[in-house]
Amino acid sequence: MNTFKQGRYSGYLRPISYIIDLVIINGVAILSIFKEKDSFIFCLIISVSWILMSLYSQFYEVYRYTRPVNILSLIVKQSILFLLIVFAFSGLYHELHIYPRPIVKYVLLCFFLLTIIKFTIYYLLQKYRTSFGGNYRTTVILGFNKKTLALENFFNKNPEYGYSHKKTFSLKTKEHSLTECFEYVLKEGIDELYCSISEMTNSQIADIVDFADNNLKILKFIPDSKEIYSKKLRYEYYDYIPILTLRTIPLEEPVNTFLKRAFDIVFSSLVIIFVLSWLTPLIAILIKLESKGPVFFKQSRNGFNYKEFDCYKFRSMMPNKDAHLYQATRGDQRVTKVGRFIRKTSIDELPQFFNVLFGDMSVVGPRPHMVSHTHMYAKKIDKFMVRHFVKPGITGLAQTSGFRGEVETDKDIIGRVKLDIFYIENWSLLLDLKIILQTFINAVKGDDKAY
Question: What is the rounded CA–CA span in Å between residue 47 and residue 119?
Answer without folding.
Answer: 22
